[in-house]
Inverse folding.
């Protein structure tokens, strides 16, 4: 005899029919494939949109930084000029007072008051227009 044990069991004549017809299972498989494809497509589109938003954000940040640099340079120059002008006016005021000329004192004081009353932004005739044009195709931002 052989050393292998004998297999004892029932002989199954046929599996029971599935409660889900094969056509429905195939349809479900197709739906899964289509849904997975649509998911991948939507994910790629949304990723592209996020990248575009990120790029647009970077453009706006660059615009702000360029405007900030321009304004800083403007203020540096204007305030340097104002400081120099103010210093010169006070020297002239001292000279006018030493000379005892009341008209010259009045004139210099008027100049000091005028300087104090004038705004450094008055030289920017239309800052809104400057901002609107900053970073456009006609006026690119130089970084």
């Amino acid at each position: 005899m052989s050393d292998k044990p004998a297999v004892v069991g029932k002989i199954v004549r046929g599996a029971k029919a599935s409660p889900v017809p094969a056509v429905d299972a195939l349809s479900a498989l197709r739906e899964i494939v289509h849904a997975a494809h649509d998911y991948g497509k939507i994910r790629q589109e949304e990723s592209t949109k996020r990248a575009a938003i990120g790029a647009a954000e970077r453009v706006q940040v660059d615009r702000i930084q360029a405007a900030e640099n321009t304004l800083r340079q403007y203020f540096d120059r204007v305030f340097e000029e104002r400081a120099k002008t103010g210093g010169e006016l006070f020297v002239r005021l001292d000279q006018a007072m030493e000379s005892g000329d009341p008209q010259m004192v009045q004139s210099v004081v008027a100049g000091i008051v005028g300087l104090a009353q004038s705004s450094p932004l008055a030289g920017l005739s239309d800052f809104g227009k400057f901002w609107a044009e900053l970073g456009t195709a006609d006026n690119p931002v130089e970084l």
Q: What stands out?
A: The mean pLDDT is 81.
